[in-house]
Amino acid sequence: MPKLTIDGIEVEVPAGTTVLQAAESIGIEIPRFCYHERLSIAGNCRMCLVEVKPGPPKPAASCALPVADGMEVRTDSEMARKARRGVLEFLLINHPLDCPICDQGGECDLQDQAMTFGTDRSRFCEAKRAVPEKNLGPLIRTAMTRCIQCTRCVRFSTEIAGVPDLGMLGRGEHAEITPYLDGILGSELSGNLVDVCPVGALTNAAYAFSARPWELSHTESIDVLDAVGAAIRVDTRGAQVMRVLPRLNEAVNEEWLGDKSRYAIDGLRVQRLDTPWVRRDGSLKPATWDEAFAVIAQRLKGVAGSKIAALAGDLADAESVVLLKDLMTALGSPHRDCRLDGAALDASVRASYLFNTTIAGIEQADALLLIGTDPRHEATLINARILKRARRGGFPIGRVGLTGRDLTYPVNDLGEDLGLLNEIAEGRHPFAQILKQAKRPMLIIGQGALTRPDGSAVLAAARAIAEAFGLVGEGWNGFNVLHTAAGRVGALDVGFVPAEGGLEAAGILAAARSGALEVLYLLGADSVDLSGLGQTFVIYQGSHGDAGAAVADVILPGAAWTEKDATYVNTEGRVQRTNRAVLPPGEAKEDWRVLRALAGCLGISVGVETLDAVRARLAAVNPVFAKTDVVTPAPWATFGTPGPLAGPPVTPAVASYYMTCPITRASPTMAACVRAFVNGNLKRTGTDG
Questions:
Q1: CA 37 to CA 514: how far, in whole Å?
Q2: Fewer Cβ neighbours under 10 Å: the N or C end of the chain?
Q3: Could you tell me which residue ranges the 4Fe-4S Mo/W bis-MGD-type domain spans (predicted)?
Q4: Could you give all domains of the chain from N- to C-terminal order, each with its CATH number?
């Protein structure tokens, strides 16, 4: 490895390391605009100039200069300081200098570096140029006159998002960043352009002119609007969530965040349930907590447990699910389920419903089979990982079901017929040879394939492929189920599935419609058809006035994920926790507190009084809850029911990326995205989704 000296400090780094990276490895920071550690090197801003010996007597761009043995680098010499002052003087010639009214003020790299490395005057007095604004869609506000042509946005769009629609046109002072086809940017990761932009050229349209960064309080949490569990920071002012930003987590989301998770937060302020409601004389009336509990207790008197059922929704946290399970058990009810879409998931075998490879493990795979899944819309950050691996090459990808969809990377469409899975498992399909030759092959099954009538047979066929081609072995498990609901894996880990003799979700709803059930408890369950429930007494607990609240006889207001300390398990089986950033509105309470209080009113002791006690109960039910932010490998076993694979084409698990839960359905920003991207009111440069 080459040895070099940086500011008098000797350092040894691997060959191919750049001077900038070598300096950072010993804690020396070199200013930059165009360089980003996750993007290709452009070397066009020249802010990272340093003095290098031996070499020509001129500054060199450290981001693009590989280290060499014996090299001597000075990052703070007079030559380097003068070069940086000159670079900043040039960059500010055409910059509008509108920091007081710029949304990036206080978080602007150009502002910070001009103060640190720049000068207090300019020698240029020419008229500043103006650049027309670009329409990149409803999520990004542009002020292109501020742009310094660092091309970070161009490289992110192409390399990370996989939608190569941005580029630089023109030369010299006529150069500008623009969409090639003069259309909006069709990527589910477009909000990250705001993060990578070092100036105020691209800003958050929904957050524009709302707050200054020094006014905000920061709370570290996780995202629950899909099953990835991205690390986020919730910024609040008073009782209001102002914005959500990604946090660094190499194992899950790196430093990126999907648009739905970033922009749907305005749905937290709309259609909220902030007081209990009781249906009287055919209409819902506000009530107190005591009144609501009294109505429930009166209705449950004398009702047999076989006539009571519960459904846990997609955003239900593990604490509330385990207490609901205990409550249903105490009432004698075997009817409970968390698989509202009817997915054929086997809760008795944990490996059968996890993303066993782990999200970071995708980068180690060398072949991939997609089965009835569209990861671009079901888990956009996992799709970005797949693209990252595909860009390195040597990663053949085959797809069965949901063919023809643009996933931002090359895919070999094998066909819509899921019967091809049996052919692959038996080695009669050409893609079987690819899996056989691969050292670390993997497959991903989507919920669209598992919610079919033959879902259990699909699961069995996928297991047969995994066992036939070495997807499961020492130190590697390439069998993966991709979930779309944040609360699903945690509920399965708790065992919120039918007890002996109990009904599944579809059976529960059918029994409610027929009158066989008298009481139905909905814990945030909104993603099913709740029509025609007839005389069934419906209790709805949730945060928003969505489908469940519309049919409820009693509504118990709960807290959204930003308003409670709660446990979730992401699609790879990683136990994660949200942290309360704001208080629930009005009379709304954390869900586990509501269930504990209801159980007390019914004369049932659930044995917990504090959050720590609930989490101890979780760990007693399933030891995986004892450790957070850890993926516990699941033992392999037999699962699925072999059978014929036939039927209509796979239906996508996510009909619209932008509206998947009560929060996103209530969000005005997500409604604007549907109008722009899905309904086609605006031209889109990506694919339809």
A1: 60
A2: N
A3: 216-272
A4: 3-91 (3.10.20.740), 99-204 (3.30.70.20), 356-482+634-654 (3.40.228.10)
